[in-house]
């Protein structure tokens, strides 16, 4: 009941932002009200699922939990009592598969609020809500049109894709959205620099770029590419040595932020880090995992998932307006469209592994283009009407834009109580959270459902596996003093007789779905 109040609060804040922006002409207050609406909706998404999602939230959550005590030793499994493959990121011990910052954030919030799902999702919700402001400022500086900037901010605030990443429902979840947020902040700082050149904005851009690298890796250097394209469009700045000094300092700061962790893991975990650096490069040269699309238009197909199919015509209209009218300054159009084009071309034509969020990092520019197209269409439809009608029409239109961006018809089935997969996760999570009532804490638990051993280790301090050992290995574990428990059965497999009939094995009767 109380959870349902969050969308209501979000709707009230959104209506307040529309009223402040269009009726009271208070733009700054309006954008902060919109940020509050964005946060209320994301907090709802952080709370709506009382379990960890499969890919890849549960892995990120478990490593983050262990980082509370060991922030500089990222571990998936604390005690690998069975042999493991250190290259298997799903099942190994030392986990350097991802850069650490987003998991450090999770660890900090779980240390403050306890080890639970909403605490680990909270930093993502906060950063994603902050993107509303950053998108607004980027588009305002670009277009000098407050209505276009406000529209872009609304598209970001009500973004379906951001909501589902905040909830952990979509693959790579918090890693991708936190990366996008820091990269967007870096682009925002770059745009502010162009208005008031100075060390403050350049260093802020370097700071956010460094943080973004420490979330996902070197794609974040895109911010410096944007600064280079801006310089290319401003011939009078070619001999402005202060510009070079500012951005060299910014680059140095970003490298100073990301380098210590790389130095640390190459020395503390040499074989694991060497493998992961090689594996990262293989994303460019090889088709890894399930992401093997042969089509160069893969990311164009993702436009529907990222922004909504109904906005694509306005995106096209926005691109034409930017390229073929003189309304928008080349000094911003070149870097923002240049960064967007480079990202789409690079990941579509060069990088062999396709992952949905790779191109979402330039969402601020895409929101801006959609907003330009929408504003052109709205102006053509209502500009010759009375002012009172225009205000009423804009209110209705912005409510419609928010609903279409949010795509509640897609969100609702994923998180509905009627969803059997969701109910199975809730059932299994309940078992995990209460397992300490029947199984002592020093036991090793076998035969969890596939990969749900990570979830059991998140909620409890057991060592757990989603398989069972061969008979000889079981005898060896028992001889070495390990206490063994195992789930009797679940939807994938039951226990062999050498375990179910062994008096030294504690058989857990509750069945996972």
Task: Give a brief description.
With 513 residues, this protein is mainly α. Helix content is 65%, strand content 3%.
Detailed description of the structure:
It is a single chain. This protein has helices at 5-23, 27-48, 57-67, 101-113, 117-143, 146-157, 160-167, 173-195, 199-213, 222-233, 241-268, 270-285, 298-301, 303-307, 312-324, 330-350, 363-382, 387-406, 408-414, 420-434, 453-459, 471-479, 497-500, and strands at residues 443-446, 463-464, 483-487, 505-508. By secondary structure, it is an all-alpha fold. The longest helix is centred in the middle third of the chain and has 28 residues, at 241-268. The chain has a four-stranded parallel β-sheet with strand order 2-1-3-4.
List the helices and strands and how they pair.
Blueprint (H helix, E strand, L loop, with lengths): L4 H19 L3 H22 L8 H11 L33 H13 L3 H27 L2 H12 L2 H8 L5 H23 L3 H15 L8 H12 L7 H28 L1 H16 L12 H4 L1 H5 L4 H13 L5 H21 L12 H20 L4 H20 L1 H7 L5 H15 L8 E4 L6 H7 L3 E2 L6 H9 L3 E5 L9 H4 L4 E4 L5
Parallel strand pairs: 1-2, 1-3, 3-4
Helix pairs in contact: 1-2, 1-18, 2-5, 2-6, 2-7, 3-4, 3-21, 4-5, 5-6, 5-7, 5-8, 5-17, 6-17, 6-18, 7-8, 8-9, 8-10, 9-11, 10-16, 11-12, 15-17
Which structural category fits the helices and strands? Answer: mainly alpha
Mean pLDDT over the residues: 94
Q: Stretches where pLDDT falls below 50 for ≥5 residues?
A: none
Radius of gyration from the alpha-carbon trace, in angstroms: 25 Å
